[in-house]
Fold this protein.
Amino acid sequence: MKDTIVIGSGFAGLAAACYLAKEGKKVLVLEKNESVGGRASFFQAKGFSFDMGPSWYWMPDVFENFFSDFGKKPSDFYTLERLDPGYKVFYGKGDEFEVPASTKELGLLFEELEPGAAVQLEKFLKDAKYKYDRGINDLINKPSLSLMEFANPLLLKDLFALDLLSSIEGLVGRYFKHPKIRKLLEFPSYFLGATPNKIPALYSLMNFADLQLGTWYPIGGMHEIIKAMHRVALDLGVEFHTDTAVEKINIDNGVVTSLDTNQGVFKSKSVVAAADYNFVEQNLIPASYRQYDAAYWDKQILAPSSLIFYLGFNKNIKNLRHHNLFFDKDFKAFGEDIYEQPKWPEEPLFYACVPSKTDQSVSPDGCENVFLLMPVSPDIEGSDDIHTHYLNLMLDRISDFTGEEIKAENIVFKRSFAHQEFKDRYHAFKGNAYGLANTLKQTAIFKPKMMNPKINNLVYAGQLTVPGPGVPPSLISGKLAAELAIKHCKI
Ligand SMILES: Cc1cc2nc3c(=O)[nH]c(=O)nc-3n(C[C@H](O)[C@H](O)[C@H](O)COP(=O)(O)OP(=O)(O)OC[C@H]3O[C@@H](n4cnc5c(N)ncnc54)[C@H](O)[C@@H]3O)c2cc1C
């Protein structure tokens, strides 16, 4: 009998397993896919190595803290490189902006666009740093089971300084007027799953993470972090069963007694459900034990899904950097198509990640590894024809802006991934990519709760619960889940 079974081996599941095992608990991780990593999966084809999900390594302190909890450092497992420039933004043909690693240099570039913007940037980042420090130290590390967790005088005093009630759009507008600067500073909102007018200004902490802490890359790819966490877990004695899908959680008198899987029945004293929360609640748990019903889930505002292409090119694509944002279309109209009137966008913004610009190990010599991602509304119908239309549209814009001719025969490997693949591979609710949008009404105590009062020995973790989507928050969610399991589940 294990102390805990963890369902799912994404960042949340791996972190939960490591922290539980560190406390001497016997832990088994059950993962439905062929390998660990969840949305940070990885595959190889025709000499190319593709990260399937996250590509931005932000908040290096969160990873340092994680590994140091196990007496390790990230450098024990992978080599990090700080990207300089961090990324490139295409505002139009011949109209590009590279974001330097140095904020001083960035200030000078801002100054060319808007007199006084360098000083404004300093002030903006000072405020963003304050939010980052408070957010990471005080807010993100709380399981948010009750409002009382936030009843500390310093935090209450801070509510105004943390800008919970104004939007990131309003905040950026208070500091800067130039549309290019505003687009640049509003961009992290799109990671947070809503338009900048709906994301609390608290999240300018992401600008601090972006511009001050920097954009990093683990040589080999983002999957190196997963490999490192998996190693830590194995060294602590955690057992893993891949290709093992949990099909039912059996509950008797408010206590989980066993899990039915495609590989047989497993028993443990407690369970950390680190698979998509909605799937676990609506499909694995008997109806009488569910905390939320289908109507509740339908009302939740989801972050976008993504149309992704993993492409292998037989030549280099000049004028691209490692991270490239194509912001040459109207943000507002695009936001409408994704969030307000969900449909396939008329004029999409998109992102191109080219890790082979930094790391030749991810593609054969002279070739380019390209990951294209176009945010799309969750839960809309797609088809091969629609996907191909957008691939051609993205390639045409890349070709136009970089001056690099791209012919069909240059693409030697192609794989697409969208709503149906998110559902099939990750049991993703409505095919979401990044969980719930981080709007105020879906923050902290307003998120689906990590514990269900009807079930004594089950804790939820992952991007659909506290603290939210993204690699660092999911990892922290796993840590919080381990703490709750130890405190509440009698293991
Ligand atoms: C395309 C994309 C790009 C992203 N880019 C970034 C980025 O650049 N930076 C960043 O910080 N974040 C990024 N994110 C977000 C980040 O990757 C996620 O928030 C995070 O990885 C979620 O981790 P998780 O552990 O909560 O969930 P998951 O990684 O989804 O893990 C859940 C696991 O549960 C498994 N599972 C599901 N059902 C069952 C079952 N019945 N039985 C057993 N196992 C099951 C799944 O197979 C999966 O492995 C991106 C996400 C996507 C999809």
